[in-house]
Amino acid sequence: MPANVAGLRYPYTRVLLPRTRLAYVHLRNLLTDAKRDRAARVSGYVAIWLPEEFVVLYLQHGELVNASLHDGKTFHSLAISAAVEKVPAEPEYGEICFHEADDEQLACMYASQTGAPEPFPPELRASDPAALFPFLMASTWDGLLEIASDRGVNYLVFRNGVVQHAYLSGAAQGTMVERVSALFDVEHRALHLTVRRWAPPGPLPVQAPTGLVQAYRDLATQLVLRLVADGRESAPAIAEHARATLVATHPALDGLSFSGRTPRAVVADAADLTSGIAALVNELLWTATDQEGNGPEQMLRELTHERRHLFQSAGLFDRLAWKLS
User: Fold this and answer.
1) Where are the domains of the chain?
2) How far apart, in whole angstroms, are the C-alpha atoms of residue 181 and residue 129?
3) Which of 109, 69, 63 is nearest to 86 (CA)?
4) Could you give the CA distance from residue 12 to residue 227 in angstroms, rounded to a whole number?
5) pLDDT tens digits along 84-101
6) Percent helix, strand and coil across the chain, each to the nearest 5
7) Where are the beta strands (DSSP E) in the chain?
8) At what angle do helices 295-304 and 210-229 cross, to 10 degrees?
9) Contact in structure between 44 and 16 (CB atoms under 8 Å)
């Protein structure tokens, strides 16, 4: 990882917006154009250098699907809505760029930012290519190798100890072998060089859309209010107890609160979020309602009717204990 946030530059296949002052770019308009403009509906990343933080927004086919944040010390995943809110409406400082990139490179970037690297053997000097590459070949290693310096961040994807794909920052001059060798060139490279590795990355995770997150929050709140209105005044406490019990297996439930605690931003894909909400609804209604008759079914049918198509497409109804016609 480069020694400073300003040195965080990543590979790309095409520049859609060169690095420029953030004050000259309206971020939300940029993201909207990426979704609506056919020519801009590409996979890539928007990198935003703020005075003390660095934000990366990931896009696939023009849709904003994930985000990460470097807080000056480490990277971590970040909810899309929280990432966008990090950028002031009228910023005085900061820079931004929009680059097209392959989906595999995006997966590499996200994996290296949010996952713990695999250690090298203590006797191996990873910054020495004469020792590193023979070791990887001899061990027929599969995975992701990151080579980062003050010039930028580079990725090599290995299979059976051999490089299958290379995503290199900087000018594309020379062969892949020559460009990789230049990264380790003692005479020309920056002083700060780190080499880390990970297991083969999976596809870039796709966060649940902000609209789905809000729809689930509204549903949970309406369920509790309906139970209170029906005479179950302990419904908020029951809901909070159920949430606290289930959050270990469904971390997305940290994005809800029934006790006055400020809910955390949701960083989860749609399937995990839906699974957590369904588990919470099932637990709440089993505990807080009379199971005789069709009380739970009728309540769910009424409260989900307006957004029934959204909930149906997300698979919520398939996970509920009651089948709604």
Assistant:
1) 5-114, 129-198, 210-319
2) 8
3) 69
4) 53
5) 999 988 888 999 999 999
6) 40, 20, 40
7) 14-21, 44-49, 54-60, 63-70, 75-77, 95-100, 143-149, 152-159, 162-167, 193-198
8) 140
9) yes
Instruction: Note whether 219 and 320 are within 8 A (CB).
Output: no
Contact 118, 135 (CB under 8 A): no
| Predicted model pTM | 0.86
Question: Tokens 């490179």 identify what position?
Answer: 105
Tokens of 248: 């270990």
Which CA distances in Å does 321 have to 151, 230, 236, 279?
Answer: 55, 21, 21, 9
- Tokens 């966008």 map to which residue? 84
How do residues 119-129 score in pLDDT, each as one tens digit? 999 999 999 99
Per-residue exposure over 121-153, b if at least 16 CB sit within 10 Å of its own CB, e if not:
eeeeebeebeebbebbeeeebebbbbbbbbbbb
**Running DSSP on this structure, what letter comes out for residue 60?**
E
HSE toward the beta carbon, residue 170, CA cutoff 13 A:
21
237 residue type, one letter? A
